[in-house]
Amino acid sequence: MVCGQRTDTLPVPLIALPAAFRQLGGNELIDSVGILKPFWEKLRMLRLGIATDTIRIVHVGDSHIRGHIFPETTGGRLQQTFGALSYTDVGINGAFCVTFTRPERVADIAALRPDLVILSFGTNESHNRRYSSMLHYRQMDELVRMLRDRLPGIPMLMTTPPGSYESFRQRRRRRTYKINPRTSVAVQTIRRFADANGLAVWDMYEAFGGVRRACLNWREAGLMRPDHVHYLPEGYVLQGEMFYRALLKAYNDYCSQ
Q: Which residues form the signal peptide (predicted)?
C-alpha cells in the first residue's frame, strides 16, 4: 500500500552548513529495489495513528556510532517526527563489520526486534594499508547473511564512512596528516555490495563532498578531532541531521508515489 496523497509528506528542515563546506554531493538514500517500502509504510501508519506499535531501528557500527551523538541526533529527530519510535545504537570502538560476525552479537541485535537495521562501517577497514576490496566485500556478505538468517524480511540500510586522514611521523619531525586514499575505495565497495545485495545505502562520504572535498570540508570547518579520524560533537550532530534529512526525503518520495 502506498500513500497516494501529497498531504502525507512532511517538510524537510533546512540545515545551516558551515561556510567552509563546498562542492557537496546529493544527500539521498539509494534504494534501487525498494527494500525500504514496508518500513516507510510502517512509519506512515504510525504517524497517522492507524498503528500504535513502537517502530524499532537498530544502528550498528564502529566508534562513530559508539560515540552516540550521530545516532542519537537522527533518532531524536525521527522520534519528534513520528512518535512511538525507538532508535538503539550498538557500536564498538575500532570495529570492522567482521567484528559483528559472531553468533552472540548477531543474537543480541536480533533480540532488539528491529524493523530496520542500519550498518555503519568502513573507517577502520580503510585504515588498513593493505586494504582489500575483495576481503571487505566478503566480510560484509558474511555479516549480512548472518543477520538475514536471524532477521528474515527485515530491511537493512548501509552508510558509508565520512572520511578521515592517515598520519605519518618522520624522524625528528612533527606528525603529518594526509587524506586516506582508501576511503573512496571502501565507499565504492560498500555501494557495490549494497546494490548487488538489495540493501539501501546512504553515501555520507558523497553527501559531504566525496573524494574531492569530504575530508577538506570537515577539516576546514574545524569539525575534526586532532586525530583527524573522529569528529567534534558538532560534526556528529551535523551528520545525524543530514541523515535524518535523507531519511525524511526518502519517506516523502514513498508517500508521493
A: none
User: Which pLDDT tens digit goes with each residue over 104-141?
Assistant: 999 999 999 999 999 999 999 999 999 999 999 999 99
Contact between residue 186 and residue 135 where contact means Cβ atoms under 8 Å apart: no
Contacts of 49 by beta carbon, 8 Å cutoff, 6+ apart: none
Contacts of 86 (CB under 8 A, 6+ apart): 54, 55, 56, 57, 75, 79
Residues 6+ apart with CB under 8 A from 252: 9, 10, 12
162 within domain boundaries: yes
CA–CA gap between residue 107 and residue 110 (Å, rounded): 5
Q: Model's pTM, two decimal places?
A: 0.95
**Domain for residue 7, yes or no?**
no
Q: How far apart are CA 77 and CA 175, in angstroms?
A: 39
Mapped onto helix, strand or coil, the DSSP state of residue 201 is strand
Domain limits for position 77: 23-255
